[in-house]
UniProtKB/TrEMBL annotation:
Pfam families xrefs: ABC_tran, oligo_HPY
InterPro entries in the cross-refs: AAA+_ATPase, ABC_Ni/Peptide_Import, ABC_transporter-like_ATP-bd, ABC_transporter-like_CS, Oligopep_ABC_C, P-loop_NTPase
Bilayer topology annotation: Peripheral membrane protein
Cellular component per GO, a single term: plasma membrane
Highest taxon, organism lineage: Bacteria
ABC transporter domain segment(s): 7-254
Subcellular location field: Cell membrane
Designated name of the protein: Peptide ABC transporter ATPase
Family: Belongs to the ABC transporter superfamily.
Biological source species: Intrasporangium chromatireducens Q5-1
Length: 327
């Protein structure tokens, strides 16, 4: 991997028995880059995040490579002992439900200090002071007092900020967030998103941000990967993809989002049909059974069109074709 590259995922296939869950997922993230992974529920976003964290469930079979800066070898092939050293240091995570990451019987300051002591040589006192400093960075009011609180004494938004403090404690190369603000109300959500951006920017960490919410991606990320049916169907700079989506799935997502409603004052449209269960997506283009532009050609797998895995789309009849010719 080049010096700037933090994460490189190549040809990632994940399956359970004969059911394919992820297909040929390929992307990379450089130092300091913030990349969004979007798609409807059931598209394969969380599985992709778990693969990157070496946290795939035991019953799934994974092929391909996941390479992380500072780690020798393919993450998919490392044993749990190696992975536990990497997690929290090279790569850290924030999930939707903060209580799954916190210990209900331990003070939050101690939990942050523990995370520091796990990967750093310092005294307990130093770790405690660093913990208070981290709680201050995630905007917990009166951080020294907050450090003595138990998780149940904090609000949902405060708990998620403690989880973020733990995730940032060892200056990870990569932070993976999976719907971290979905359970929070809108004003708290804005604060947490801002803290995530500030946290990774201050550390020059790479960010993989998973969400079904396009407006969140527009706020947080500079690049986006659009996932459907366990495949990346489109990728590119957020501004470009949102302004001029090419894949018909991306176009549908945008038309169904508040983002587009806000711009065009139109009524909420939805993508026709629903996401099939894993393994039940059509052959050829995975979006074929819901796409109003589908032709016979779409019964074969659309090739990737674009200069790199970071920019392009896989669609036979892309949107904005004429706009491109004319511009
Ligand atoms: N351990 C598993 N065994 C079988 N199917 C799974 C497993 N984990 C996830 N899936 C299926 O894989 C698909 C993608 O799941 P997921 O990555 O959680 O989607 P998303 O995060 O985009 O909502 C879903 O259909 C889900 O039911
Ligand atoms: S490849 Fe065909 S079915 Fe798939 S999104 Fe494009 S037009 Fe629709
Ligand atoms: Mg998910």
């Amino acid at each position: 991997m080049s010096g700037q590259r933090v994460l490189q995922v190549e040809g990632l296939d994940v399956s359970v028995g004969r059911r394919g869950l992820l297909h040929d997922v390929t992307f990379s993230i450089d130092r300091g880059e913030r990349v969004g992974l979007i798609g409807e529920s059931g598209s394969g976003k969380s599985l992709t995040g778990l693969a990157v964290l070496g946290l795939l469930p035991e019953d799934v079979h994974a092929r391909g490579t996941v390479a992380l800066a500072g780690v020798d070898g393919n993450l998919l092939e490392l044993d749990e002992r190696r992975l536990s050293h990497i997690r929290g240091r090279e790569v850290a995570m924030v999930f939707q439900e903060p209580m799954t990451a916190l210990n209900p019987t331990s003070r939050v300051g101690d939990q942050v200090a523990e995370a520091i002591l796990l990967h750093r040589r310092c005294s307990r006192g130093e770790a405690r002071r660093a913990a208070v400093e981290l709680l201050d960075q995630v905007a917990l009011p009166a951080p020294a007092e907050a450090a003595r609180a138990y998780p149940h004494q904090l609000s949902g938004g405060q708990r998620q900020r403690v989880v973020l403090a733990i995730a940032l404690a060892n200056d990870p190369e990569l932070l993976v967030c999976d719907e971290p603000t979905t359970a929070l109300d809108v004003t708290v959500q804005a604060l947490v998103l801002d803290l995530v951006v500030r946290g990774v920017t201050a550390r020059d960490s790479a960010l993989l941000f998973i969400t079904h919410d396009l407006s969140v991606v527009a706020t947080v990320c500079e690049r986006v990967l659009v996932m459907y049916g366990g495949r990346i169907v489109e990728a590119g700079p957020v501004e470009e993809v949102f302004r001029r989506p090419r894949h018909r799935y991306t176009q549908g997502l945008l038309e169904a989002s508040d983002l587009e409603q806000a711009q065009e004052h139109t009524r909420l449209r939805t993508i026709p049909g629903s996401v099939p269960p894993a393994g039940r997506f059509p052959a050829g283009c995975v979006f074929r059974n819901r796409c109003t532009h589908a032709t016979r050609e779409c019964e074969t797998l659309p090739p990737w069109t674009g200069p790199s895995p970071e920019q392009g789309y896989a669609c036979f009849h892309p949107a904005h074709e004429t706009a491109q010719v004319g511009s």
